[in-house]
Amino acid sequence: MRIDELLKKKEVTLSLEVFPPKPTTAFENVNRAVKEIAALKPDFMSVTYGAGGGTSAHTVQIARDIKDAYGVNSMAHLTCVSSTKETVEEQIQLMRQAGIENILALRGDIPDSSEFPLPEQFHHAVELVREIKEVAPEMCIGGACYPEGHPEAVSKGEDIRHIKEKVEAGCEFLTTQMFFDNSIFYNYMYRLREAGVMVPVIAGIMPITRKNQVERSIQLSGSCVPARFKSIVDWFGEEPAKMKQAGIAYATDQIIDLIANGISHIHVYTMNDPQVAAGIMDNLSAILN
Ligand code: FAD
Q: What is 194-231 written as a DSSP string?
């Protein structure tokens, strides 16, 4: 099912994200995790696509299995900055052949150019959105947005102007970068709507369940860490079982607050961990029905 239709049809939705195997991980382990996460029956699952060729090889296959073998709606991510037009078109055709209806159109992070010279055929996600519209106009396209501003953006206002361009080019919904302070998200929503960006926005929540995730997630996303969250990591960080429970509780609390404030579409970055996905879904079982 197209995600724009799902978001219109269902009052509250919860989607979960998985990533394909890294060169160092076994495909079987990822497959098992994907199957267990799909068994929780989220509204849809999205599958990431590694920039620079890293973990992109199995994205379409996993998204197809989620839909065909496990009966859950799926979305495939696609990045463009490290790819040629030919590779991008090939990927779109593969998705089409696999019956995938939803693509998250992304620029991707810019790799170190000394290691990987860029083809310079795509510079921004908006160009990928236009490409998909041309090659496969039937696809439902989503885009990324950043409540705290994209780390490279000149200003938050400029960043929102570029989000608006993506929507005008054909993005039917947006999914946010992770954030740990809901008030930042509410403020961002106000600014998006004020700028005339009216498509549905899915709030991206990352349950931090291991101490070593904190630094990396924050470095990648540039997200602020509220004092309440910091004390959880300080207090429970060295004890894995306690940190996991506290991280799931913090993410659940964020989601309940979002839903109670009218933000009813939630995406959880479950990082291939079925226990984390199940913990969140269990905590929300009545709310999601
Ligand atoms: P863009 O929309 O192109 O924006 C990037 C920067 O360029 C911003 O600062 C923006 O303000 C600026 N900009 C945009 N358009 C223009 C323009 N026309 N002129 C000048 N400046 C402009 N990465 C992966 O590698 N694989 C994934 O699967 C993946 N999934 C993601 C899912 C979500 C929900 C999110 C939030 C991020 C994901 N990422 C993924 C990371 C993403 O690729 C990076 O954040 C990347 O740096 C930016 O991608 P974008 O699509 O937001 O880029």
A: HTT--S-EEEEE----SHHHHHHHHHHH-----HHHHH
Mean pLDDT value of segment 8-23: 94
Q: How far is it, in rounded angstroms, from Cα 182 to Cα 161?
A: 22
Gap between the Cα atoms of 103 and 49, Å rounded: 11
Please determine, looking at this structure, whether the domain spanning 3-288 carries the CATH number 3.40.1360.10.
no
What's the token pair of residue 188? 């961002």
pLDDT category, 222, cuts 50, 70, 90?
confident
Q: 84: which 2 tokens? A: 């040629």
Neighbours of 145 (CB within 10 A): 26
Name 16's bridge partners.
Answer: 45, 268
How big is the chain, counted in residues?
A: 289
CA of 163 to the centre of ligand 1 (A): 10
Enter the tokens of residue 110. Answer: 């810019």
Cβ 144 under 6 angstroms from ligand 1: yes
Q: Please tell me whether the overall predicted TM-score, pTM, comes out greater than 0.85 for this model.
A: yes
At 254, the pLDDT band (50, 70, 90 cuts) reads: very high
Q: Which atom of ligand 1 is nearest to the CA of 150?
A: 9
Q: What is the pLDDT of residues 6-15, one digit of tens each?
A: 999 999 999 9
Q: How far is the CA of 126 from the centre of ligand 1 (A)?
A: 9
How many Å apart are CA 148 and CA 204, to the nearest integer?
Answer: 12
CA of 164 to the centre of ligand 1 (A): 13
